[in-house]
Fold each of these.
Amino acid sequence: GRGLAEPRRDCSSWDPSLRRDDELTTLYDAIVLGAGGAGLMCAATAGQRERRVLLIDHADQPGKKILISGGGRCNFTNIHTAPDRYLSANPHFAKSALSRYTARDFIDLVDRHGIAWHEKTLGQLFCDGSARQIVAMLMEECAKGAARVSLGKPVRDVEHADGQFRVRYGELTASAPALVIATGGPSIPKMGATGFAYDLARKFGLKVVEPRPALVPLTLGGDEVLFRELSGVATEVVARAGKAAFREAALFTHKGLSGPAILQVSSYWRHGEPVGIDFLPASGRHWLLDAKRERPRTHFHTLLGERLPGRLAEALTKRLGLWGELANMPDRKLEEAERRLADWQFSPNGTEGFAKAEVTAGGISTDGLSSRTMEAKRVPGLYAIGEGVDVTGWLGGYNFQWAWASGWAAGQAL
Ligand code: FDA
């Protein structure tokens, strides 16, 4: 009968609801836009503090990036979390939130939910089972705080008047004195990522630091396309861009360079700058001259092949033009080869862009935000958290830790 045709309301238990403009508007204490890691943490935290929270996402399920993260096991934090492992126009901004909600705090939460985890490498913690456990845990925490979660409805419009934020989403309208922007950055648009956070922030007069792809593979052009022949070859290197240096694996791809060392430096790399690669970080000084003295009959590419994958040794030998036995090579040529191998200069012509970037660097400027609460200084009640803010972590669980910490900070303040 008619009952089935009644308009859907996603909040019927909380009165008062009021009619405005002939539209049913549901009142909340806070509306959180974006049910990713940051938004879920924020909604759970505020909900458990007795705040009436509405969490809205246009996706049909929460935490989609959590689900695909860490190869499906979610690298949910890093035990070496520290502010200097984050990039931001204001390197001090992340300190407060990171110190108030730490990796230990998140591990305790994971433990309380009985989720098994392990350290993989470099302090990176992963679920033994599945990233689904992390999403389920955060949804349970939201339920514990009685936060309403609305999925599959796009946000159509946000208005601000008389100290209330009024959000139209799908065919519904909600209103609250606090609005949290937690819609993330534009990396991986095919998963529903958008620049919505920036549009909204600008609408409220917040500045946006130019967003750029980070933790992203670099592309090679010109003469360096020759390295594409090495697609699939990986080796441990030290990669450098600007002042940053990372000792991890690098991988040649059919477009250029990838692997953890490259993803890490990509966040620091700027167009036009070189990326320096030490192909032999474990080799001591003068190792080539020592080898020449000890094994003069050895061919250069054989020696290199003992320390590097064969195809890479061959390609580097070709470019150095050092064919033949070490004995026939002048010392200064070997010294020069050693220098080049320790700081091979690549000139990337770009990155693989937002389509392949694990995160977005830049974003909503921290200038306009309180580092303690994430609230906009000039717009009381407006908050921004997570990846949409100009705070970007290293590879290895740091970005989720920022999502948890910033979400918690705002959740405590709402
Ligand atoms: P997030 O992007 O997670 O959430 C934003 C939410 O807002 C989404 O649910 C989206 O649907 C919604 N939304 C967007 N626009 C909207 C709109 N207009 N209206 C309504 N809703 C909207 N980090 C890490 O620490 N460890 C790891 O293992 C990985 N692994 C990893 C793998 C891959 C493939 C990627 C792409 C990224 C990672 N990351 C990671 C990075 C990590 O996923 C990222 O930093 C966090 O998910 C950011 O959390 P947020 O909640 O800020 O945004």
Amino acid sequence: MHSSRVISAIDTHTEGMPTRVVTGGVPVIPGATGNERRLYAMEHLDGLRRFLMTEPRGHAAMSGAILQPSTRPDADWGVVFIEVSGFLPMCGHGTIGVATALVEAGMVEVVEPVTTIRLDTPAGLVVARVAVSGGHADAVTIENVPSYVERLDAHVEVPGLGSVPYSLAFGGNFYAMVDLDAVGLPFDRTRQRDISDAGLAIMQAINEADRPRHPEIDGVDHCHHVEFIAPGSTARYSRHAMAIHPGWFDRSPCGTGTSARMAELWARGELPLDTDFVNESFIGSRFVGRLISQTTVGDRAAVIPTITGRAWVTGLGQYLLDPSDPYPEGFEF
Ligand code: PYC
């Protein structure tokens, strides 16, 4: 076969959302920390990201994670998260996919009933506890990075929508949380184009009016996710449509979005620590979240969330580039 590039991957899905876990073919990415690696990759490896995420090897809602050696002594593996939208500081469904792939491929020492894997992510240390039986990764609980509220009950002026009420929280990425009712749309997948357009308009308006910035993680300075909360949702069980730049929906219940939502509910006094919060995705799949302790981020009160979900291996791939391929970095359609 003619090929100038060979990338090996374990393809998985987490509650419906793909994670292409890259296991070989990418050299060590320069950087003294996970976030420095992300920043380096944003500048120098965007073509590799597009090669793996966009058509014809990926699709419009593709997501992945590049395995790396850890930059820190207390972690087993490093991870750089990639998706059609860019390089993420943290990805919950991606971490569940990575932990499942590492166990299923025997790339960590597998211990039953629980295998603990410590991951060096750009947003910080994330611990994944994999429930394993008979060698099978049954479910994964991740202990996420500190999550906090940036704005509660704010408003933003959005062209075509008027003044939209929202709250903004960080759970590994920044999430604007908006009631679907507030933009006059139903929780209905046949209206996904309208919901996505509303989400993109809200993200743009927030970023233009007042961009959020993480006080401790360099280069985390925009809102590219809008969590549209379905009517009837409560502080224990919520359904949502997660609209993501540049125009797709998370198929999973979104681990970092669930963390942000729990931080918001906690800040409102509606979700105490050690209490289950079930979050349901646009396709009906579920994560169970919990807040396990309190901490701070800069001068803000923050919480440590856990997220439990499942992932399955869907394929083993070697992604090739024929030197005569007219689309060496794929394309977006
Ligand atoms: O699960 O955290 C997540 C996530 C972020 C973007 C898509 N999924």
